[in-house]
Amino acid sequence: MIETFLDETAASAVDTKKTDKRTARPKIGFVSLGCPKNLVDSEVMMGLLDRAGAEMTSDVEAAEILIVNTCSFIDAAKQESVDTILEMAQHKTAGRAQRLIVAGCLVERYRDEIRKNIPEVDAVVGTGELEQILAAAGLEAPRPVTQEPSPFTILIGAQAATAPSFRPEGDLRESQGRFSRNAWDGADTHLPQYLYDHTTPRLLATKKASAYIKIAEGCDHPCSFCVIPNLRGKFRSRRFESVVAEAESLVAQGVREITLIGQDTTCYGEDLDLKDGLAQLLDRLAAIPDLKWLRFLYAYPNKITGQLLETMAKHPNICCYLDVPLQHASGPVLKAMKRGANSEIFLKTLEKVRTAVPGIALRTSFIVGFPGETEEDFEALCDFVRAAKFDWLGVFGYSDEDGSRAFGLDGKVPARTIERRKRELMKIQKRISKQAKENWVGRELDVLVEGESGETSLLWEGRSEFHAPEIDGKLYINDFGPFEELHAGRFYRCEITEAHDYDVVARVIVASGEES
Ligand code: SF4
């Protein structure tokens, strides 16, 4: 459902005027905020708009329609979303744009407030209604006739979308109020159910040769600090063959690295009666010729099965990389977070992972300052980080989210303490990371070159299989070896020559595949 800020008569009158002013292909400026999952939603919306005849522009001054796809995971993300909407509203007032649309998680949470407080916004589109972006932009869905796609649009197959299924856990948690939005004034009470599929057009916004595939949406876990299930709805998986068809199409069009995402990728297929669904999916996708790297993000710790690890170890094109957000390591805090486990259990899991997939790079993230977190709890977390020796680690300060179970808990930790704990934990990790990166010096790795560094034209940037897109440390290239120039989107064999706290520097030896 689209919410417009005008009554129906006024809306159509304004629409007519605006349509008259538009060029044949309305120019759309699109801002995507938040995580890769939100980026895929943006790519789907851009694909739909592109197919309906719109033209994307990165020039905000030239845009006739401005769209902001928002994030509202934590306070900082909400603030960034609101700031961006206000900035785009100014462009609308002063520039050429005639329409401003707000999409994404902020809409699911603050649908009415956006409407009341930012009159420049013409329409809002929630996470479960992506296809409504066309109506919000005043465009019509194209009739299903043969149409030449834009060279940037990934049009995949021609099958109809099917309704999602849910896990029994999701239905149970729904009956327990897990997804309730009753405390959210004006929120649409219908939970999002949308899932794109291989027939949905996507306009990729990722760097050359790399793409995400969202294999599932929503989440059934009860984590007490998290409102994502309220925003995104119950866990539902995309059909197995739909994911395979999308991956094959992406690879046929030049993508060489696929990163599977979802709120929890390790639950993939549980609603489709698949046992070890993610392992089965990886096994199938890894067989796609020319797919050089395959990885997945957002594993849930107790869902890392022996079968999953065996599958990772079996295929050389499944990256030696595991992202497993643990959130904390102290038993009492994990219990209050409604996640369970403790540092001993986690250390055993990590040992199992490292034994099954030798050399694997491990990434995690933690929340510090959860209500009731004592100095002892924090020390337990620090000890765990020292023992676990992660390759990559992110720390978030607890954000008190209205609608989460933790919102009602006593023992809130002062902001200054949260900041101090964040700093201390990152200091510990910095030492671990520096030492680990020093051990990389002299190693030869395949590197996917991404292009000139944003920091200086003297350096280029790339990633190894141990670096996921966007989130991990940088790999800089300062020596092109035998090449005059490098090509973004290609793989090169490189030697690591320098190590810094989180970043490394490399020199090119040869183009990958030309070693012998
Ligand atoms: S697993 Fe927990 S933290 Fe992650 S999205 Fe689901 S509820 Fe939120």
Number of strands: 21
How many helices? The count is: 14
Radius of gyration: 23 Å
Give the distance, in angstroms, between the N- and C-terminal Cα atoms: 58 Å
- Poorly predicted ranges: 1-22, 145-161
Give a short account of the largest sheet: 6 strands, mixed
Largest sheet: spatial strand order:
1-6-5-4-2-3
Given the C-alpha coordinates, what overall shape results? globular
Q: Please state the oligomeric state of the protein chains shown.
A: single chain
* Average residue pLDDT: 90
Describe it.
This protein is an alpha/beta fold. Helix content is about 35%, strand content about 20%. The chain is built from 14 helices and 21 strands. It has helices spanning about 10-20, 35-50, 75-95, 105-115, 135, 170-175, 230, 240-250, 275-285, 305-315, 330-335, 345-355, 375-390, 415-440, and strands at about 5, 25-30, 55, 65-70, 100-105, 125, 155, 200-205, 210-215, 215, 235, 255-260, 295, 320-325, 360-370, 390-395, 445-450, 460-465, 475-480, 490-500, 505-510. The strands form 6 sheets. Strands 1-6-5-4-2-3 form a 6-stranded mixed β-sheet, sandwiched between helices. β17 and β18 (about 460-465) form a beta hairpin. It is globular. The termini are far apart. Residues about 1-20 and about 145-160 have low confidence and may be disordered. Iron/sulfur cluster binds near residues 219 and 300.
